[in-house]
Amino acid sequence: MFELLGIPPQVMMGQLLLGLINGSFYAVLSLGLAVIFGLLNIINFSHGAQYMLGAFVAWMLLTYLGLGYWWALVLAPVIVGATGLALERVALSRLYHLDHLYGLLLTFGVALIIQGLFRNYYGISGQPYQIPGALAGGQNLGFMFLPNYRAWVVVASVVVCFGTWFMIEKTRLGAYLRAATENPVLVGAFGINVPRLIALTYMFGVGLAGFAGVLAAPIYSVNPNMGADLIIVVFAVVVIGGMGSIMGAILTGYGIGLVEGLTRVFYPEGSAVVIFVIMAIVLMIKPEGLFGRTA
Fold this sequence. Notes:
Order of helices and strands: HHHHEEHHHHHHH
Mean pLDDT: 87
Shape: globular
Distance between the termini: 44 Å
Strand content: under 5%
Largest sheet: 2 strands, antiparallel
Number of domains: 1
Number of helices: 11
Strand order of the largest sheet: 1-2
Structural class: mainly alpha
Radius of gyration: 19 Å
């Protein structure tokens, strides 16, 4: 069918693979945003900077401590999440009773500070991060060559995304989290430390950004600006899926990545704006998003 359109199947499948890889990052990052907004009602504009921080932590662990990719995949989300925990305890916890705009402005300022510090120290040139030896090379599928690491990124993102959805929607811990958001006084009456639960939830959402940063480090160069443009796209994904919708963030992230891949084949000039066109159409038809709930 694609040959009738003058498009080689290899080109089509290659762009779909690239779109799926990009969609994997969109899904993990938008999932973190959805967790934070859906459970805490915080618009976390520092998510892109925390994604960048995860990549830099992985690079630092390798450069200064000799700890490779697999260690970074475990330690970097914890370290980045710990910075988020400190931010939540010091600043964000004071803004919960105020309008969403205050949290947005605070996290936007934090993002500028983080990016500015790393840009001042490391410059704007990227730092290379080598693909782990166990994931080097690729597989010849006949119609295309599939790099092992990119296949790993897709698998890891799927496991993390749907594992997070299951934890929040199907477990007792997730029920506590949702209840603490809707009625913190009642949940506290049952002996649950609500402020600690909220802080750990924010830490987890930020840790997802750090995890995505580690996944991205071997693919993209590690640089201070790597999250600045991506965060705008990720926010668009969250809006399309529905603010606070966990499953909406996941499915929309992968879907938007595939749509971008197809757009690069049929209309390359529109690949950079297609997501915003989709967002505008969705907001006109269903303002709460595809998977959002009507207020």
